[in-house]
Amino acid sequence: MRLLITGSSGLLGLNLALDSTRSHHVMGVDRNKLGSVPFELIKADLLAPDAVYHIISESKPDAVIHCAALADVDACEASPDLAYQMNADLPGRLADVCARRQVRLIHISTDAVFDGQKDGVYIEGDAPNPQGVYAQTKLEGERSVLQINPMAIVARVNFYGWSLSGKRSLAEFFINNLRTGKNVNGFTDVLFCPMLVNHLSEILLAMLERRLRGMYHVVGPQAMSKYQFGVEIARKFGLRESLISPQSVDKSSLTARRSHNLWLSTHKLSADLGMTLPTFSTGLDEFYIQYQQGYPQKIRSYQQE
Fold first, then answer.
1. First to last CA, the chain
2. Scanning 92, 99, 155, 192, which has its CA 20 to 30 A from the CA of 281?
């Protein structure tokens, strides 16, 4: 399969591209961050006029996984126009071109479209209520994609892993700080369902192969607080969990409002794929093995010098 991945220098995009090269011809779209990589690199600005049309027309993919986004929540608050262009307008244009050319599409969205006020688990049919610019624009992108291209998949995700900069995931945040003896906060009142990015890559490819369509929650099967996540990371890596201070997100200095409960049900995904999703402990074990084998350094070596 000829697979086009946008945002191929991002945390998900790069890991997905590297994992996918084992079984597919991968073409990654990146503007200027990647150097020498083991997949075909398309240097392009997705927001340039007609860029999406030209990229799809010339690369002729069988499928597109759209990972590119303005994902920094606080940056979206500071630059709402850019957030709209990247997260709402661009996905719609991509969905249109893919529909016209009969190219399968997975659009990556976020668990943050929910306000976190529900007492219990969110299913795909629950009404979103985004709380900030990032979540609002991502919701608009979701709706645009499915309205224009009903055969597309929209995947609401939450993941961690090793990134190009070494600073993109929550797991890296805890490791980088705890390793140097710094005190950090862990939110006890933010519940989420983290999944190792490489497990997410496998599942996205399986969704393409099964020709699924529509909305899916593609997150880990276990919910935990961000404080608990930090403690689990510390224990696995032999770092001092006492450096993590339990705190409420409402008392933090973060600009954008965060949702308290992002516990998403994965029943629909598991049933439609006919598989049990990998547990958190399985993902954490793999994440640590990657660390032992030098995978973080390998990832960072792809950064353009």
1. 31
2. 155
What are the structure tokens assigned to 11, written together? 């945390």
Instruction: For residues 160 and 168, give the distance between their C-alpha atoms in angstroms, rounded to a whole number.
Output: 8
Backbone angles phi, psi at 240, to 5 degrees: -80, 105
45: domain CATH number is 3.40.50.720
Q: What is the distance between the alpha carbons of residues 166 and 61, in angstroms, rounded to a whole number?
A: 30
Cβ–Cβ under 8 Å, residues 2 and 59: yes
CA 202, distance to chain mean position in Å, is 13
* Whole-number Å distance between alpha carbons of 130 and 132: 6
Question: Tens digits of per-residue pLDDT, 142-159?
Answer: 999 999 999 999 999 999
Each residue's pLDDT tens digit, 177-208? 999 999 999 999 999 999 999 999 999 999 99
Domain range enclosing 270: 2-165+193-223+262-279
Residue 39: predicted pLDDT:
98
Please list the ranges in the chain whose pLDDT falls under 70: 255-256
Q: What is the pLDDT of residue 266?
A: 98
3-state secondary structure of 67: coil
244-247 and 224-225 beta bridge pairing: unpaired
Q: Please state the pTM of the whole predicted model.
A: 0.97
Using CA atoms, how far apart are residues 266 and 158, in angstroms rounded to an integer? 12
Distance CA 124, CA 178 (A): 36
Residue 117 CB neighbour total at 10 angstroms: 10
Q: Does 288 fall in a domain? A: no
